[in-house]
Specification:
The chain has 158 residues and is mostly helical. It contains four helices and no strands.
Length: 158
């Protein structure tokens, strides 16, 4: 496993594990009084975020390159958004069961799914950007080793 793929994966995983529980807490747990339900939902959404972030970060790092630095974050963000939307649709039933209260305010599902989609894109974009940064730094180090300062090819622009 290369350094850029490892850092991109774990950056995406960390971003997903942090951002997804924040959105779920904001939308579903704002009127929740039972601590055990809250903790279970928070841990489960963090694990889902970790998985979605790790997958989208992996995709972002494998699609990026030095010649096309925009490809990794773009594809990783799209895949993260898609995976986050699909997982929020699947987990909707369980969230409704766990947080149902007869007189509670209803959750705006369109806004929730839109927000989850954007939050799901974040780990893929961040994973791709971190992988690009590491990839560029490694390329600079290789260039420094291959060409000592006196033997570098001249730059015709200067």
């Amino acid at each position: 496993m290369s350094k850029e793929s490892s850092t991109g994966r774990w950056t995406g995983a960390f971003a997903g594990a942090v951002t997804r529980p924040m959105v779920v807490s904001g939308f579903w747990l704002f009127q929740q009084n039972r601590a055990e339900t809250w903790l279970t939902i928070l841990i489960t959404s963090s694990l889902f975020g970790l998985l979605v972030g790790w997958i989208s970060g992996s995709i972002a790092t494998s699609c990026g390159s030095l010649r096309r630095p925009w490809a990794g974050p773009l594809i990783g963000g799209l895949m993260g958004a898609f995976l986050s939307f699909v997982s929020s649709v699947v987990t909707l039933y369980f969230l409704c069961l766990a947080t149902y209260q007869p007189r509670a305010a209803e959750v705006n599902l369109r806004f929730y799914w839109t927000f989850m989609t954007f939050v799901g894109a974040l780990p893929g974009v961040l994973g791709g950007l971190v992988a690009n940064r590491v990839r560029r730094n490694l390329a600079d180090q290789i260039t420094d080793v291959e060409y000592p300062p006196t033997e570098r090819p001249s730059n015709p622009e200067h």
